[in-house]
Amino acid sequence: MAFDFSPLLPVWLITSIGGTFLLATAVRIPTAPIGALLRLLAGAAAVLFLLGPERVEQDFDRLPDQALILLDDSASMGLAGRTEIRDEAALRLRERLEDDGIDVQTARFGGTDDSDLAAGLTDGLASVARSQLGGVFVLSDGQVTGTEQAQGLDLPAPVHSILIGDPEGEQDRRIAWVSAPSFALVGEDMELQFRVDDTRGQPTLPVTLRIDGEDVLSRAVITGETVTVTVPAERPGERIIELGIPSVPGELTDRNNAISAKVNVIRDRLRVLLISGEPHAGERVWRNVLKSDPAVDLVHFTILKPADKPAYAGPEDLNLIPFPSQELFLDKLQHFNVVIFDRYTYRGVITSFELAEVARFVDRGGAVLVAAGPELTVDGSLAQQPNLSYILPALPTGGIAEEAFIPTLTQTGGRHPITSTLGSSDDWGRWLRLIPSQVRRGTVLMEAEDGQPLLVTDRVGEGRVAMLLSDHLWLWARGFDGGGPHREFLRRLVHWLMAEPELEEEALSASLSDEGVLTITRRSLSEDVSFVRAEIDGAPTDAIELAEGAPGQFGATLEGIEADRVRLETTTEDGRVLTAAAVRERGASQEFSAVTTDASALAPLVGATGGGSVVLTDDASELPGIRRTRADRRDHSGRGWLGVARRDARAVLSETRVPLLPRHGYLLLVAGLLLLAWVTESGRMKFFAPAQRLGIRQPKETA
């Protein structure tokens, strides 16, 4: 039996009424203490009546206590037979709990890429009444996440950890990132920090560094310490950085013996030096296109007065500045990525020694573009400067072709990344001038209708050279005869000269999605591309055949790749080996970064709820005993046993409410107390005349 209240009026109003009775009683105490007391009792009875006290009688059934068994289903549980040990232990644990009359519910958490305990608890508690929950048993290898969020669930029962595995007998080596940059600048160093651990206490381990699947260096590092290595960012593009350590027999897994990171290497600014030999119609096209590219920092000079031309005005009257040839070509040439000679001829402004420095600049990795006009055929042209002409892929044969023609792509140009996607020559306008030339070496990408070369590219040393044998590109910009893709053409040409990765003729790349889809892309000028060889997590696979899509582009798609890293390799026609690497977009699976059995992650949650922890190393390991404990107990575990709290939950079947007194009973009680107070105060009951009995003199009544 229990008591409850059903107020007849708002509580604040009942409180006000009770306060009024109390105040009135306090005023009467000095003159009539007995009457004041009776009035106070009458007020209390009235307040009690308004509160509506009731006797509550319930018919209920006792509910069984419940236990939740959480099974770790993450990928690391598949190592060393842990899944079989877990399932056997869960079956025996269920039987013991049910033998004690405990209702058991089972839930799972974790997957291929995560082991979120908080998510598993949330899902599991959906099938358990919190008022009946007596305990939670987590069967896991301890490599879990989300324990802090799990503590925020405010569980009313202990959480017990049953570790699956052998912490003392397991062997594993692992390498992990401490920090790795997501981007870097060309010419600067990338700083990588990592840590190598070995459960057997090996003092040093050899680490191999790979960039885009190619071995770069190998050295021994100290285990258990943070190691820093710097790698130069030599060229732009996405770089795949990999670090690996050798595996050892008996390891739990070798998937954590290698780590990888994607680093996007970018240029701070692409510095272009544009030298125009004289003002002409196409000069503005070059300037507009290069200035509109946000990645290009342009320095432009136009030669308006040759060095040998006399000036008829004094220096103070000239707005021209002397061309700083020595500063540009001797002091600061190495700060530029590309030098463009736009209709430039030798006019005594740039010396032969400075032109030789330009040739050495190309040989060391720079780039030169010659946009030729009629000046290429005259005496003193760049083609006649021996210090520079030896790097040019084509030389003029003499004369100028002043006939209309439509630029067309050669067979190679139709496959080259500079020109392959510019469109069809059927949609291009005509040009009206061409410099007939003899190709010495390199690749012809565009030509006139009669087969005369128009665009020739070549590699010299570590650098690149290109020649555009016409100065009428500006006709496309003006829309003459329909125009053409001048802006995209110049942008790609300049970026190819600067060795941008997306414009490489022979390239191999790959990507690996989170869903395990491997996409391979191969660009080549050859029509017959060889197979690609692959290594998936270090294990070689069968050769992968590529299919041609767009001209010069080959590819293949493989699904169901469970690995975190893939290395690819192929060979070009000239014998060069191309390598590439692919890693999962989200990074390597965290499930394999640490795989040894460890209780540290679960310890805070177990300690906060008063639970206990045991270890099962194999199928024969004995489960701890199960004891029933009080719900208010602080510790629910001991040596060789784990506790399930008694919750004593009930299900109410019916409920009866009876007023403590009938309503007329309250009214009679209040009325009787007030009447008694009146009689006492009027002096009609001598027995209750405390003033006379105590000898207190009463004031006389006046007529």
Rg on CA atoms, Å: 45 Å
In CATH terms, what is the fold-level topology of the largest domain? Rossmann fold
Shape: elongated
Helix content: 10-25%
CATH class of the largest domain: Alpha Beta
Widest beta sheet: strand line-up: 16-15-17-18-24-23-22-20
Low-confidence segments, ≥5 residues, pLDDT <50? Answer: 685-703
What is the CATH superfamily of the largest domain?
Answer: Class I glutamine amidotransferase (GATase) domain
Overall structural domain count: 5
Quantity of strands, as a count: 37
Number of contiguous helices: 14
Assembly type of the shown chains?
Answer: single chain
Secondary structure elements and pairings:
Elements: E1 2-5, H1 11-28, H2 33-51, E2 53-62, E3 66-72, H3 82-99, E4 103-109, H4 117-125, E5 133-140, H5 147-151, E6 159-164, E7 173-179, E8 183-185, E9 189-198, E10 204-211, E11 214-222, E12 226-232, E13 237-244, E14 258-266, E15 270-276, H6 283-292, E16 296-302, H7 325-331, E17 338-342, H8 352-363, E18 367-371, H9 386-389, E19 394-396, E20 408-409, E21 437-439, E22 443-447, E23 453-460, E24 463-468, H10 474-477, H11 486-497, E25 507-512, E26 518-523, E27 533-536, E28 539-540, E29 547-548, E30 553-558, E31 565-571, E32 577-583, H12 603-609, E33 613-616, E34 625-630, E35 637-638, E36 641-646, E37 650-659, H13 663-682, H14 690-693
Parallel strand pairs: 3-4, 3-5, 5-6, 6-33, 8-14, 15-16, 15-17, 17-18, 18-24, 34-36
Antiparallel strand pairs: 1-2, 2-37, 7-9, 9-12, 10-11, 10-13, 13-14, 19-21, 20-22, 22-23, 23-24, 25-26, 26-30, 27-28, 27-31, 29-30, 31-32, 35-36
Helix pairs in contact: 1-2, 2-13, 7-8
Transmembrane segments: 12-29, 36-53
Keywords: Membrane, Transmembrane, Transmembrane helix
Protein name: Glutamine amidotransferase domain-containing protein
